Amino acid sequence: MARHEPGERRLIVKYAVLTLAIFLPLIWAFLFVRNLYPFASWNVMMAGGDLERGRSYCMLRGETISGETIDIPAINLTNALYSRTWTMVNATIDNQSFKLKSIHPQNEELIRQFGGVEKLPPGVRLTDLLQAWGSLYNERLPAGSPRRLKAIRLDMYRWESGRYSDYDKFVESWRKEL
Amino acid sequence: MAEGIVNRVVPGSAFALGVVRSIVHGTFLISILFTSFSALGSLPVTILRPTGAMKFLPWSFYDHLQTPGAMVTFKVVLVLSLVFSTAGFLTVVSTKTSLLLVVFYQGLLRSFGHFNHDEMLAVYYLVVLAFTPCGDAFSIDSGIKNKTRAAFAYAYPILLMQLLMAWTYFSSALIKLRVAGLKYLSTDNLPALAIFHSLDNLHDTHFKLAFWLPQVKAYLPFAVGFVIFWELLFPLAVFRQRWRWWILGFGIVFHLATLVFMNIFFPHQLAMYLIFVDWDRWKNRLDDEKTSNQISLTAFKKEC
User: Fold this and answer.
1) Averaged over A79-90, what is the pLDDT?
2) pTM for this structure?
3) CA A51 to chain centre
4) B19 touches chain A (CB under 8 A)
5) How many other CB atoms are there within 10 angstroms of residue A109's CB atom?
6) Which of residues 137-176 of A touch B (CB under 8 A)?
7) A108: number of CA atoms within 13 Å, CB side?
8) Among partner residues A41, A83, A136, which is closest to B118 by beta-carbon distance?
9) Does B127 touch chain A (CB under 8 A)?
10) Which terminus in chain A has less CB density within 10 A, N or C?
């Protein structure tokens, strides 16, 4: 059997601890198929697509001072979020920040005003998000530019299930004057 | 014995581990340099949903942080720490501060949107590098004070990182088979998923190739099956040199395909493929070229 110097032995123990500290939570996350940040379960697209299930999606649009309606790629406004923008929007529409164990005090106040979480309209905080995006967009343009936005809106559409067609049935829209 | 096996499987030099440190920390540094933190700070704190460990922080903390000014300050600290750890300056400390700050930053992003696995592998690499001697070479520290250890000290962390990457793909395949089973190979799986991710304008890119997939949907179960097979085989990239570049090569094709068909891209995960490169061999090749160039130059000078 190989003999190790005390320094080497310490290194082996250290690396064994490091390996266990990383892999044990990962194996737990794998077994329970659960992401508990920073422990990840690689469940990306685990369920696959289902043609029978209808799906909703959103388009971010702006109404310019010159009267045009333009598509606004949100990725250009808040690039930090990059691939998470669409889920942030979905979660905001679903009022998920009101369904936490610990709710932000301002959201608690809003729940009180409406008389319960279930009474909140969909996307009750969406106007705040649209305001932030609209301001970011306008800040990047000169004060007199006709391309500046007078309003920004999020249009929701639904792709009905069962067919590879009819992708854009309009559902509803949220609009914020800037 | 185990040390011998580890040293045979992966390059065991301080240089190789130092290069890996620069790649991992440098990847985060580059992506953060091009990110607008003031825009991130403009998002309303009321839509934040702290996830996992981020729940331990109080709302008052997020209220103070989630402003353009505070986020720019956070970016400056993060960039400074990442510059130090990428360059290998005060490595013992800077790799740990970079780890903490990146874990917090990534947690904040996930508290706005969904979990998204792209950066997670690189985050685990930061954990490995924070507790291993990755500043002994290819670093500013090594120019100040030279330190050498047994090859195992440098080889094992690289092996651990390679195993982590193998785990991401291998476990992903197993989860798909566990959750969806053979239904995952249905003809509509890929077209339905790809089209859904191509409908909005909230994804990073707006490729429309997904709408072509229904025309070839009869063949797609074979493509999906091949991807699962490749994911299951990924551990061979660690132990079989001959298979490595085929497996990694297909990985590049796979991630580019998810970009153009699904508007989903994993750039951080792709950058981490570089840990499979034998950096010692590259260094030796460069050293040999340098030596032969010097010999030729000396001979040329003598002739003149």
Assistant:
1) 92
2) 0.93
3) 23
4) no
5) 11
6) 157, 159, 164, 167-168
7) 7
8) A83
9) yes
10) N
